[in-house]
């Protein structure tokens, strides 16, 4: 997949994992898109948190978690390796089909 831009969201506070409510390692905005039932392309961004506890068993998250253990901080501009791990993880965490109806409902409420 090409053209997917992943934004790392950084703030004064570490991100909080929405699953276990503990401190997450990384908050990223991941683009998603699909064609809805009416044939209209839907595009947007979803925020995902990388969590050392919840994502430890996820095949593509584990190398990224290890990267954080080794490097401690995010300097993505400096690290091709990090960007590759991030892209692989983002592919895995893309909004699953079952959530699409919910996303569409939310988008409709915004417009
Ligand atoms: Zn968690």
How far apart lie the N and C ends? 28 Å
What's the shape?
A: globular
Distinct compounds present: zinc ion
What is Rg? 15 Å
User: How many DSSP helices?
Assistant: 3
The description of the largest β-sheet is: 3 strands, antiparallel
Mean of all residue-level pLDDT scores:
80
- The helix/strand series, from N terminus to C terminus, equals EEEHHH
| Number of separate structural domains | 1
Number of strands: 3
Structural class call reads alpha+beta
Q: Residue ranges: pLDDT <50 for 5 or more in a row?
A: none
Strand and helix layout:
Blueprint: E1 7-9, E2 26-35, E3 41-50, H1 62-71, H2 80-92, H3 100-110
Antiparallel strand pairs: 1-2, 2-3
Bound molecules: zinc ion.
Brief description of this entry?
It holds the Pfam family DUF6300. This protein has 111 residues and is of the alpha+beta class.
Q: What would you note in describing this structure?
A:
- The protein is of the alpha+beta class and 111 residues long.
- The chain has one domain.
- Helices cover 31% and strands 21% of the residues.
- The protein has helices at residues 62-71, 80-92, 100-110; strands at 7-9, 26-35, 41-50.
- Strands 1-2-3 form a 3-stranded antiparallel β-sheet, with no helix packed on it.
- Strand 2 (26-35) and strand 3 form a beta hairpin.
- It is globular.
- The chain starts with 6 loop residues before the first strand and ends with a helix.
- The chain binds zinc ion.
- Zinc ion binds next to loops.
- Zinc ion binds at residues 17, 19-20, 22, 51, 53-54.
